[in-house]
Automatic annotation (TrEMBL):
SUPFAM superfamilies: Homeodomain-like, Tetracyclin repressor-like, C-terminal domain. Keywords: DNA-binding, Transcription, Transcription regulation. The keyword Transcription regulation applies. GO terms for molecular function: DNA binding. Pfam families: TetR_N. InterPro entries: Homeodomain-like_sf (IPR009057), HTH_TetR (IPR001647), Tet_transcr_reg_TetR-rel_C_sf (IPR036271). It comes from Pacificispira spongiicola. Residues 9-69 form the HTH tetR-type domain. This is TetR/AcrR family transcriptional regulator. PANTHER family: TRANSCRIPTIONAL REGULATORY PROTEIN (PTHR47506).
Length: 211
């Protein structure tokens, strides 16, 4: 049966959505085209009608995953439009939470696929570069409102700390160690970057995400 142009476009978006989650769960090399298409309810033969290659799909799926991550941050801004420190705190607390730790399929692609992306071609890296810059822009704009003299540098430091902490936490079997890594980094971000701006002492270790 011939597929309409609108249906073909919808099918393509469905494959990208499914791939964005499956790649985060299994890695770019951890799943093949056949299983990706099966996850989207389609046959392997339909793949090359929609994508030039698996790397083409990986680039599109990475873009989609990073857009999803940005949307989560945007919701935090919407909920606290006049409180930049409150927004940053909300982002940090969510990012370094046990809920995010367990969200391997729907969590941050910079954690799930960052190392994989470094071994991919230029198209995948371009998707990541664009997404990373959007995350940095959000943090930089929020930090600039606090009077920070080098908001871009601070944004890069906070994002790097969060990604590193979540990456290490997912790499260990010891759940206690994983939680301690997250709470220690949350405490340091609050102490180094937020306490001096807000005048509010950092939360006690037992009050931080994962405790």
């Amino acid at each position: 049966m011939r597929v309409s142009r609108d249906q073909a476009a919808e099918n393509r978006q469905n494959v990208i959505d499914v791939a964005s989650r499956l790649f985060r769960e299994r890695g770019f090399d951890g799943i093949g085209i056949k299983d990706l298409m099966a996850g989207a309810g389609m046959t392997q033969g339909a793949f090359y009608k929609q994508f030039q290659s698996k790397e083409d799909l990986a680039a599109q799926a990475s873009k989609r995953a990073l857009e999803d991550a940005v949307n989560r941050w945007s919701r935090a801004i919407t909920e606290n439009p006049d409180d930049p420190i409150g927004v940053i705190s909300a982002i940090v607390e969510f990012y370094l939470s046990p809920e995010h730790l367990g969200e391997k399929m729907n969590g941050c692609p910079m954690v799930a696929l960052g190392a994989d992306a470094a071994r991919q071609g230029s198209d995948v890296k371009a998707s990541f570069e664009s997404g990373i810059n959007v995350h940095l822009d959000i943090l930089e704009n929020l930090i600039a409102e606090t009077g920070d003299e080098k908001p871009r540098d601070t944004a890069m430091a906070i994002l790097s700390m969060m990604i590193g902490a979540m990456t290490l936490s997912r790499a260990v079997n010891d759940t206690g160690l994983a939680k301690n890594i997250l709470t220690a980094n949350a405490a340091q971000i609050h102490k180094i970057f937020l306490f001096e701006k807000s005048g509010t002492p950092p939360a006690a270790q037992d009050d931080l995400p994962g405790s």
